[in-house]
Amino acid sequence: MPSARASRENLVRGVAVALITGVVTLAAACSDEDTVDTIPPPWPTRTTKPDGPPQPPTSSTTTPTSRSTVSVAGTT
Protein backbone atom coordinates (compact mmCIF):
# COMPACT_ATOMS: atom_id res chain seq x y z
CA MET A 1 0.00 0.00 0.00
CA PRO A 2 1.48 3.41 -0.94
CA SER A 3 2.28 5.75 1.86
CA ALA A 4 0.53 9.09 2.46
CA ARG A 5 3.69 11.00 1.71
CA ALA A 6 3.97 9.63 -1.86
CA SER A 7 0.44 10.78 -2.68
CA ARG A 8 1.15 14.23 -1.23
CA GLU A 9 4.23 14.54 -3.47
CA ASN A 10 2.15 13.52 -6.46
CA LEU A 11 -0.52 16.08 -5.52
CA VAL A 12 2.07 18.86 -5.19
CA ARG A 13 3.66 17.82 -8.48
CA GLY A 14 0.28 17.81 -10.24
CA VAL A 15 -0.62 21.24 -8.87
CA ALA A 16 2.76 22.60 -9.96
CA VAL A 17 2.36 21.20 -13.49
CA ALA A 18 -1.15 22.64 -13.73
CA LEU A 19 0.01 26.03 -12.46
CA ILE A 20 2.96 26.23 -14.86
CA THR A 21 0.79 25.11 -17.78
CA GLY A 22 -1.82 27.74 -16.89
CA VAL A 23 0.77 30.52 -16.65
CA VAL A 24 2.31 29.62 -20.02
CA THR A 25 -1.12 29.38 -21.68
CA LEU A 26 -2.21 32.71 -20.23
CA ALA A 27 1.03 34.39 -21.31
CA ALA A 28 0.62 33.06 -24.84
CA ALA A 29 -3.03 34.15 -24.98
CA CYS A 30 -2.19 37.68 -23.80
CA SER A 31 0.79 38.06 -26.10
CA ASP A 32 0.46 40.58 -28.91
CA GLU A 33 2.74 38.51 -31.11
CA ASP A 34 0.88 35.90 -33.11
CA THR A 35 2.97 32.92 -34.08
CA VAL A 36 0.17 30.82 -35.54
CA ASP A 37 -2.21 31.48 -38.44
CA THR A 38 -0.40 34.55 -39.71
CA ILE A 39 0.28 35.33 -43.33
CA PRO A 40 3.94 36.13 -43.98
CA PRO A 41 4.75 39.48 -45.60
CA PRO A 42 5.13 39.49 -49.38
CA TRP A 43 8.52 39.05 -50.96
CA PRO A 44 10.25 42.31 -51.89
CA THR A 45 10.08 43.32 -55.52
CA ARG A 46 13.05 42.41 -57.66
CA THR A 47 15.33 45.30 -58.55
CA THR A 48 17.63 43.52 -61.01
CA LYS A 49 16.93 41.74 -64.24
CA PRO A 50 16.96 37.96 -63.86
CA ASP A 51 18.90 37.38 -67.10
CA GLY A 52 22.44 37.36 -65.79
CA PRO A 53 25.03 39.82 -64.55
CA PRO A 54 24.78 43.51 -65.44
CA GLN A 55 25.93 44.44 -68.93
CA PRO A 56 27.86 47.58 -69.89
CA PRO A 57 25.58 50.36 -71.08
CA THR A 58 24.99 50.58 -74.79
CA SER A 59 25.57 53.99 -76.35
CA SER A 60 23.72 54.45 -79.61
CA THR A 61 23.31 58.25 -79.64
CA THR A 62 26.78 59.43 -78.64
CA THR A 63 28.79 61.69 -80.90
CA PRO A 64 32.52 61.25 -81.25
CA THR A 65 34.57 63.88 -79.51
CA SER A 66 37.32 65.67 -81.33
CA ARG A 67 40.84 65.02 -80.20
CA SER A 68 43.20 67.89 -79.82
CA THR A 69 46.92 67.70 -79.44
CA VAL A 70 48.81 70.04 -77.20
CA SER A 71 52.42 70.74 -77.88
CA VAL A 72 54.63 71.98 -75.10
CA ALA A 73 57.39 74.37 -76.06
CA GLY A 74 60.86 73.08 -75.54
CA THR A 75 60.11 69.38 -76.08
CA THR A 76 60.82 67.43 -79.20
What does this structure look like?
Residues 33-76 are annotated as: Disordered. Residues 58-76 have a biased composition (Low complexity). The chain has one helix at residues 4-30. It has 76 residues and is mainly alpha-helical. The relative contact order is 0.05. The mean pLDDT is 75.
Which descriptors apply to this entry?
single chain, 76 residues, mainly alpha, 1 helix, 36% helix
Overall geometric form: rod-shaped
Order of helices and strands: H
Contiguous helical run count:
1
Q: How many beta-strand elements?
A: 0
End-to-end Cα distance, whole Å, is: 120 Å
Mean pLDDT: 75
Helix content: 25-40%
Instruction: Please identify the structural class as seen in this structure.
Output: mainly alpha
Rg calc: 39 Å
* Main sheet: strands, sense, barrel: none
Fraction of residues in β-strands: under 5%
Uncertain runs are none
What's this entry about, in short?
This protein has 76 residues and is mostly helical. Helices cover 36% and strands 0% of the residues. The mean pLDDT is 75.
